[in-house]
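Write out structure tokens for Cilia- and flagella-associated protein 57.
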Amino acid sequence: MEPRENELKRMKEQIQEMEEELGMSSRDIKSLELELEQSRLQISAKDKEIRRERQSVEDLRTELRNIKTGLDRSSRYIQEPKELKEACERIVYGALDDSSHWSRRLVGREGHGVRVRETEGAHGAKCGVSQEETGQRHGDTSQGQHQSHAGECVTAKRDQ
């Protein structure tokens, strides 16, 4: 009977080893499932972020297209400074609408205005938005003053 007992003992040891391997495998599987779930959550968050960024880019493209259209339309006033200034103001105030992406990016903090200057382009003059008016580029300018530089269309101030 001894060989039979040895056989049973060996089989019990094999069963025990297999159960230990099964336990380790199930722990590994649970660990991998947790990692997979975390990865899925990260992918979902990144996907939402990418969708938001794509929408933001599309919004910017639309606003830029609107500005370019306004500039093209205002180029007919190249010989009429007053009408050109008014056309540029309409473009700028339209672009700096409170809901506008440009308003949030360019104006930023309350109390800072945006200087709008005309730049030379292929079809003559067109209006463009430059840096925040901090006085760094053209010297210090008080809030209500309007600097007279060649090519300047308007100085836009945010209502407070």
